[in-house]
Design goal:
Blueprint lengths: L3 E6 L3 H11 L5 E7 L5 H9 L3 E3 L2 H6 L5 E4 L6 H10 L3 E5 L6 H14 L3 E4 L6 H12 L5 E9 L6 H4 L1 H4 L3 H16 L5 E9 L12 E8 L4 E7 L7 E8 L2 E6 L8 E3 L15 E3 L5 H5 L1 H12 L9 H20 L3 E2 L12 H4 L2
Parallel strand pairs: 1-2, 1-4, 2-3, 4-5, 5-6, 7-10
Antiparallel strand pairs: 7-11, 8-9, 8-15, 9-10, 11-12, 13-14
Helix pairs in contact: 1-11, 4-5, 5-12, 9-12
This protein binds nicotinamide-adenine-dinucleotide.
Length: 361
C-alpha cells in the first residue's frame, strides 16, 4: 500500500522530532507539507527536511488533497481548533500532548473526528519508548507479580519557548507540560484501569519571576484495581532532560531511564556539539545520548499511526486517551487547589484552563 502522506503544523521543536521520526519510517509514510505562521520558518523547515510544500497558514495545508494526516506541533491552545478544522477537511489527526486546554475542547475534537470519519491519534510516545515497552512486556508476563506502584518522572530545566511559561497559552506549568506523559504512562502501564482519585502537590519553587505556572509537582493517581501511579514533574532540574520509571510488584521490580540510562558517561574539558535535550553545557561530565528519537519512541509511534490510517493496526492512543489525561490534569490542579484527593469522574464546567482549578482557589 502507498505511504501515508503527512503534513506538519508547526516548525520548531516537536516538528523536528516528528519530521525525523517520519523520515525514519520511509516504508510507511512521507512528509508532503508543513505550515507555520512565522515568516520564513515553514520554508526553512521544508528545505531542512526535504518537504515539497510550505505554507504560512495551516488552512492552506488542509486544502491540499494529497495530505492524508496532519501532525499538530503547535502550542496547546491551538490544538482543538486545528484538529476540528483538519477533521472538517477530511484529514486524520495526530495531536501532540496535552490534547487541548479543556474537557469541552476534548469532546469537540473527538466528536469532529468521529463525524468526519477520521482518526484522532494522541501522540504519547512513552507508549512506544523501547525501554518502557520492554518493562511493560515483562510486567504483563508476570515478572513482577501484582504491580502495585508505578512511578514516572520527567524533569528538566524549563521549556525552550516563551508560550509554555504563559499559562494562558499552555493551560498550566510542569504538570500540563510533563505530567501529562506520566499520567498516560502509569495508566497504560497498568493496563488502562479506571482512575479512582488524584492527589497533587504543586508549587512554583524557582521560576516565579517567569511564570504563574507550577514548576514542580508530585501527583498521585489511585487506580480502581488498587495500584498507585506517582508522577514527578519538574522544570527545576538543570543538567538535561530526565525521563525515568520505577515499577514495583510483589514479586519484583524494574527501573528504566530513557536518557541517562542510554548515554555514554563522558568527560570533556572543551565540550562538544550536543549531549541531550535541555542540557546547557557539554563540558565536564555529561551524558550524551544516542538514537534520541528512537529511545523516546517517536519513529515507532509514527509508524503505528501510519499503519492505523491504512487499517493495519488499531490505535493504542487516541482522542479518548487524551481526554482521560485531560480529566486527570483537571483533578490534579483541583487537588492542589483544595488540598485533598479528587475523585473521578471529575468534570467541573466553565474552566478555561486547567491551572485555574489550582490558582483560583
Ligand atoms: N511529545 C513530546 O515529547 C513533546 C515534546 C515537545 C513538545 N510537545 C508538544 O508539541 C507542541 C509544540 O511544542 P514545541 O516544543 O514544538 O513548541 P515550539 O514553540 O518549539 O514550536 C511551536 C510551533 O508552533 C507554531 N505555531 C504557532 N502558532 C501557529 C499557528 N497558528 N499555526 C501553525 N503553527 C503555529 C510556531 O510557529 C512554532 O513553529 C506542544 O503542544 C507541546 O506540548 C510534545
Amino acid at each position: 500500500m502507498s505511504k501515508v502522506k503527512i503534513g506538519i503544523v508547526g516548525s520548531r521543536f516537536q516538528a523536528d522530532c516528528i519530521a525525523g521520526a517520519v523520515k525514519a519510517i520511509p516504508e510507511e509514510a512521507e512528509l508532503v507539507a508543513v505550515a507555520s505562521p512565522t515568516k520564513g520558518h515553514a520554508t526553512d523547515f521544508a528545505k531542512r527536511h526535504g518537504i515539497p510544500q510550505a505554507f504560512s497558514d495551516y488552512h492552506d495545508l488542509l486544502r491540499e488533497p494529497q495530505v492524508e494526516m496532519i501532525s499538530i506541533t503547535a502550542p496547546n491552545r491551538l490544538h482543538a481548533q486545528i484538529t476540528i478544522d483538519a477533521a472538517r477537511a477530511g484529514k486524520h489527526v495526530v495531536c501532540e500532548k496535552p490534547l487541548c486546554m479543556t474537557l469541552e475542547e476534548a469532546d469537540a475534537m473527538i466528536d469532529a473526528c468521529a463525524k468526519a470519519g477520521v482518526l484522532l491519534l494522541y501522540a504519547e510516545e512513552l507508549f512506544f519508548a523501547p525501554k518502557y515497552v520492554k518493562a511493560k512486556q515483562m510486567a504483563d508476563e508476570g515478572a513482577f507479580g501484582r504491580v502495585h506502584l508505578v512511578k514516572q518522572g520527567e524533569k528538566h530545566s524549563g521549556p525552550h519557548s516563551d508560550w509554555f511559561w504563559d499559562v494562558t497559552q499552555s493551560g498550566g506549568g510542569a504538570v500540563m507540560d510533563l505530567g501529562c506523559h506520566g499520567i498516560a504512562f502509569c495508566w497504560w502501564f497498568l493496563g488502562k484501569p479506571k482512575v479512582k482519585s488524584v492527589y497533587s502537590q504543586m508549587a512554583t519553587q524557582v521560576h516565579g519571576d517567569r511564570t504563574q505556572g507550577e514548576d514542580e509537582a508530585i501527583t498521585i493517581i489511585e487506580f480502581a484495581n488498587g495500584a498507585v501511579g506517582m508522577v514527578e514533574s519538574s522544570w527545576n532540574r538543570p543538567g538535561g532532560m530526565d525521563d525515568s520509571i520505577e515499577v514495583f510488584g510483589d514479586k519484583g521490580q524494574t527501573y528504566a531511564d530513557i536518557l541517562m540510562g542510554n548515554a555514554l558517561p563522558t568527560y570533556s574539558e572543551v565540550g562538544f556539539g550536543y549531549a541531550v535535550e535541555k542540557a546547557a553545557s557539554t563540558k565536564g561530565w555529561t551524558y550524551p545520548v544516542f538514537e534520541e528519537h528512537w529511545n523516546y519512541g517517536f519513529p515507532q509511534e509514527m509508524r503505528h499511526f501510519a499503519r492505523c490510517v491504512r487499517g493495519k493496526e488499531t490505535p493504542i492512543s487516541d482522542g479518548a486517551t487524551g481526554r482521560l489525561v485531560q480529566e486527570v490534569l483537571y483533578a490534579a490542579y483541583a487537588s492542589a487547589g483544595e488540598g485533598r484527593k479528587i475523585a473521578l469522574p471529575f468534570r467541573p464546567t466553565g474552566v478555561t484552563k486547567p491551572i485555574d482549578l489550582w490558582k483560583a482557589r
